Write a sequence for this structure.
């Protein structure tokens, strides 16, 4: 499971939603800087699109939806859980191929992404080439070089960053609410029958790790048939949705906190 910085300017909407559910939304930090990041991101996206055009690919500039926002996570988990059994259950599904064969392009294919249609139209044999053109050569997590995404960011200039003081202010304004949300998250998972780790930060991995063990167990018994994989995916979907339901307040608070840090930083 991965967490990525979000750039959407919708923190207020998330906070209002939390307040409506009975959770006290933290007040915005004092002295928030003027908008700046979204201008940088728009320029970087235009430069990325120009680079992809020169490389012979179509790329629609725009801010991708946050793959860790609650609505996107909900849609993905309802369909595929954590994408563990999905490659064995539905190997021909375009969304599964993008997620399994080319790490990273699943974010591009997320609901609401302007490039979702472009990615969906690519045959499986072309996904890897598209991925290399956009993200560069090499292995995800092991260092990648080149790629139009990096070229676009470099052409746009150094990104603006929030000051350390502002980050501290934002974190302080959310600390009590996030602590309470982690406590509720933990209690909910316990009631659902999961072994809850002592470190609350490991809650994000608790259910996912259980499902990984289930997949490894199934694979140890020999060839995993499509029927068995579909049954495994059905159980995985239920588990993934339980995790999301238990952690909903935390997920929304975390998204709002990071948005507030990065969506309103000063122009460079």
């Amino acid at each position: 499971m991965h967490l990525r910085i979000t750039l959407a300017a919708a923190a207020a909407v998330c906070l209002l939603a939390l307040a409506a559910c009975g959770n006290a939304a933290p007040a915005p930090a004092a002295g928030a800087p003027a908008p700046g990041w979204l201008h940088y991101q728009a320029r970087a996206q235009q430069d990325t699109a120009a680079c992809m055009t020169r490389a012979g690919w179509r790329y629609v500039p725009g801010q991708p939806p946050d793959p860790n926002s609650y609505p996107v996570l909900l849609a993905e988990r309802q369909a595929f859980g954590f994408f563990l059994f999905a490659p064995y259950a539905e190997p021909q599904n375009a969304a599964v191929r993008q997620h399994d064969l080319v790490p990273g392009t699943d974010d591009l294919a997320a609901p609401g992404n302007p490039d979702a249609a472009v990615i969906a139209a690519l045959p499986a044999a072309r996904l890897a080439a598209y991925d290399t053109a956009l993200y560069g050569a090499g292995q995800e997590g092991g260092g990648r070089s080149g790629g139009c995404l990096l070229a676009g960011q470099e052409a746009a200039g150094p990104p603006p960053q929030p000051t350390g003081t502002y980050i501290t202010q934002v974190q302080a304004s959310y600390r009590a609410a996030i602590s309470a949300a982690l406590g509720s998250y933990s209690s909910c998972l316990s009631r659902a029958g999961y072994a809850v780790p002592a470190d609350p930060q490991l809650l994000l991995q608790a259910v996912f790790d259980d499902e990984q063990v289930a997949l490894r167990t199934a694979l140890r018994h020999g060839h995993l048939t499509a029927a068995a994989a579909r049954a495994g995916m059905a159980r995985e979907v239920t588990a993934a949705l339980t995790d999301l339901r238990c952690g909903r307040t935390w997920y929304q608070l975390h998204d709002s906190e990071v948005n507030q840090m990065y969506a309103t930083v000063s122009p460079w």
